[in-house]
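Researcher: Please predict.
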Amino acid sequence: MTSADLAFRNVRKSARDYAVYFMTLTFGICVFYVFNSLGSQQAVMELSSAQSLTMRTLDRLVGGFSLFISVILCFLIIYANGFLIKRRKKEFGVYLTLGMERGRISRILVWETVFMGLASLVAGLLLGVLLSQGMALVTASLLGVKISGFRFIVSAAAAGKTVAYFGLAFILTLLFNVRQVNKQQLIELIYAERKNEVSRAPKPAAALLLFLLSVLLLAAAYIMATAKLFESGALLNVLLILGAAGTFLFFYSLSGFLLAAIRRSKLYSRGLNMFVLRQLSGKINTAYVSMSIVCLMLFISICALSSGLGVARGIATELSGAAPYDATLVLQPETEDGEAALAYTPVGLMSWLENKGADLTTFAGDSRAAAFYDAADTGLVFAGPNEEKVEPFLLGLTAYNSALTMRGEAPLTLAPDEYAVNFAAGGPGWDDYLNQYCAAGGALTLGGRELRTREALLRRYSLEVHTQRKLDLVLVVPDELLAGRQVKKEVLFVNYPRSEMRYEQLCLAALSGLETESADGRRLRGLVETKIQVSDYAGNSTATIGYLAIYMGTVFLIASAAVLAIGQLSEASDNIHRYNLLSKIGADERMLSRALFAQMLICFGAPLLLALVHSAVGLAVARNVMLKIGGIDISGVSIAAALVMVLVYGGYFLATYWSGKRIIIRE
């Protein structure tokens, strides 16, 4: 029998042992292909030129990120394969005892790797091609575009890259396999499954000290994160080191610490707890490393999915109301970054545009102008949350109602002694602050008249088209109180006759790059922004952030679950004779199942629980940052993402338990 025939028979005979390994490879190949086939998805989408550029940029970004992902998957493949080699050491020892040369064993492993690699590549690519058809829907949703029609698409470039990257991974796996067999002594191969790993668990007293040290390190990292001390680049490295060191020490000390504590309780002698704890303690030299890595990967996965999808959703939600008109032109004085807008004598926007030769009738179905006046003499400065201070604009009631009419809203009515507050940006903190301000009446003296406001006069309408968050707070007052005042900006509102790209092009051609000087010598510059630009910006941001979040979060989640699953199945295979001995001395099938369940629950549950604690702190910090810089609340999507991840992780745990149970019960 040739080496290839023997390898093929071994793969068929050991199909159960290879099942998890095969699933891991297939999934990795599938995910890699799906995300690298992004460029081919453009063929079924109705994209503008800006969206096509976004897709090309995203394709290059994902392609570069795939190099990092491929390294992770490569290590995962080698790690998973290592357990399979360990499972078969006795088999290799029997081959050597019967006179087979190590070279032929190496050739058998080469063929087995080739068979598994080809099978995984074929299955992974087929599954990837199928899933990539549905991924086009996700991409279209993130970009906010339509699917032009279904066409079955296969990306040759993505397939070639997948074969190249995973082919290299299989070659490295092959070299690893050959090295593992060649360096082992015959006696080690024969008795591999009966050999306990040397326990490196610390003594109980040392374990307790290390456990307390790990808690202190993690507490210090949490305090640094919540106190925002990591904003300094140097301290960020310290925070990461503290968090990683605390995690490794936590799991390293946990076995010795818990074992010593449980020995002094009644739990130790109940059922097969003594066996379970001994097994965990005996594997401490590998368990604490894998559990620590899995914990950190789960933490990254939860934060990536929650923060990434939260930010993408927040950007899309915020910008959905940021384009109430097809276009706006804002004319205001040039200022340095961070400098407050200067007041000037108004130029009369409509007449000025006419003098500039901008024919609005060629692209505007409806167009109106409004002047936003200076309110410096009122002394009002709104100090909202996060130490943000905003100086208000004054806007006449007629101009405000004109702007509302263009966006299809009902007009506002004010009593002679009332004013309204309009604030489109901000977040929950600003809402609470302004609600309290309006409820208190907010007395304002203007033109010798005292005005009051109320909660019913607080509005949240955006009065400009913009691609960036703007903290523009407007006080809407009776028109007669604005006579003789200087303005801070003049705004032209434009709605096209129809949603056609030609009107967009005419608008940009007529309104872009306009400049002038006011009567008092202020240099004025016009900035035009359109609804289409906002849509492109939103699609670019949400697609980029969403794609990378899903890509990284999914890979890290499955990788961490696969590492634990393969490890626990290998452990179950190693412990078959131990479970047989327990059965012979009176342990029934129910007790054996409970022992296996408890061992797997600890190995799966401990990393997840600590990762959730890490994530709770990390996401709380991310939420505060997002609220401050963008008014984006990621709480809802963070909780949803964490629940989904727990369900997926739990599914891996149950699948691993059922597979492990079949191993120990059947054999």
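Model: The first strand starts at residue 327 and ends at 333.
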